[in-house]
Fold this protein.
Amino acid sequence: MTENILEITDLCAGYDEKDILQKISLFIKQRSFVGIIGPNGSGKSTFLHVLARSLPVRTGNIALLGNPLQSLSFREFGKNVGYVPQDSDIHFPYLVYDLVMMGRNPHIDRFRSPSAQDHDVVKKALELTHTDDIAMRPITSLSGGERQRVLIARVLAQDPIVLLLDEPFAHIDIHHQYELIRIIRDASQERMAVIAVFHDINLAAAYCDELVLMMDGKIWAWGKTEDILTPELIREVFKIIPIIDVNPITGRPHIYVEEELKARDGHKPWIHVISGGGTGSCLISLLARSGYNFSCGVLSENDSDCRTAKRYGVPTLTEPPFSRISLEKLEQLREMIQKADYVVVTSMPVGWGNLPNIQVLLEVEPEKVIFIVPPSRPIFNDFTGGTATDTVQKLLSDGAMKISNPPELLQMIQSFDPE
Amino acid sequence: MTPTRYSLILTTLGGLTLGAILLSIITGPVEISLIDVLTGAIQDKTMAQILFDIRLPRALVAALVGAGLACAGAAMQTLFRNDLADPYTLGTSSGGAVGVSLAIMSGSLLFIPVAAFLGAIGSAFLVYILATQHKRLSTGNLLLTGIAVSMFFSSVVSVCLVFSGKNMHQIMFWLMGGLWNASWNDIPILLIILIPAGILILFSRDLNIISCGETETRTLGIDPERTKLLLLGISAGITGLVVSVSGTIGFIGLVSPHIMRIICGPDHRILIPACLWCGALLLVCADTISRTWLGDLPVGIVTAFFGAPFFLWLVRRRTDV
């Protein structure tokens, strides 16, 4: 038996004269979880409609376990392929139980009633999706999320070998969302191949083995999740600037969307940022997006501020984790803050290791030092027995400034240096 | 749907219908004692004739006609996914009427049922094809198309009337939708509708799934195009047979499924059998009322008189939800 459960070759299909899908070729392995992502209008849903046979194949071929899809009777097709739509428009008050039983329809002979086994399968599907407590309620009385869970229960009761999902998690509460997708993933690992259209790239990234990236009715890229979620591909298809990070909990790729960066402007004042412990990330990305020339440091290499600065290519002074600031780096820092028009310090934790970052400030004109301290917070999380705080008090009394957030900084700088 | 509830509803409806038929045969210009009927103690020959040759066949015809219209209406509402669909609104009855008019004009009275059958089926598919755009059936178009086709066929019937000469009053008489000349001869033709009605019941799971949406029907093991065409043909066929006997009678096919959905829910496994009883019950009652108190007005007028306001109430009730 072939390892591919579904083989799609050169598929073209569409609604009017025009082909929406153009020469799509794709192979789906047994027990795989394949996500389809792409911008609106890229043909994701159309593709799923063709697989669900509600839109005919124009040219090309779809084979289910080696048999052309069109050659299968719908009963045979229904035993093998399940489909969950984006949302349902069921306006008749069917009981949830009866609706889930409809999933058994391809398995039940026309002249028979559902067997005890069919009832067992339905009950199990209701339990799995936590819809057993609403089993005797009419579907029309349920919320959108509950309805969607019922439709997923129905497709689980259907027990197909290929499961097609068209953004079925869009209207579901977040905890049910992850729960349901895990149920479906478990089912896929046991017996079925899942092909799911995702609107949320990060949800797709967290659970799919493979991703299919679609654009303009074509498959733009197809492969292992990690190979598809590259900044180049995402930027090409979604027209956004992605930041691809790792979700600390799942260990899977996670995408953040970056705003359009302004070009660096040499006429703007130069800023040096002294931060640590993640307190400067927000400021660093704001300055980068606003086109400022600036530098950072000295930062520990594993500090998230350091990662943020590197991401934007900001010149940054670094030291290995948990080490003191060396004399060499301190000398470079001196140069940087002398050259800078402003030195901005965030409300960070200060210990003996990074105390030189603060002490060196006594060597520049106090007027160009600005502290960003959120209201009703101490200036520092001071682990130096008050030394750092004393330094800051002195600077403040000599004319250094204190503001409460990064946007305020930009306003202030712009008012000093009108362009 | 539990089996107990299922049989309770059907037994009650069946009992009510049989009761209505009993009441119907003892009421009328000539009063007959219920006790006499039940004990078989009717001596008078005229009495027996009224009972068995006039009232009983008429009540049975009313019951079968009502049953046929109601189950065809239930199926059509589901197939077209439209609450307002029924043999009358979609022009299926008018199609049957054209068939009957042509048959009467050509003098081939024996072919009336066949002509009505063909006319009804032809009209149903004409509406289906005309209301389909880009291979999709638009429900908004459906009713308008139904009304247009219905009007067109009415005008065809009028033309038939004008050119029918001596047959004119026969066509008129039949068109008004009365059960005056119901006789035992009509019963065999009407009993045929129990076969297509049985097929509808066999397809009730398919109807359930079709009523829940278009895309999933295929993955739930149903060929929607073929199933729809088959069941539409069956519903239209039932309508044709009914129309050949009774003329066009409105509102039974529209109202019965609505009442039954309120009582037993949307599940066609019970809805179709329940509609058979409900349609029978309603038409027997309407005909008895017409015959007894309204000077034997065509029963179609009585059903419209009660059905239209009731239907308006249903529409308003639905929009309140």
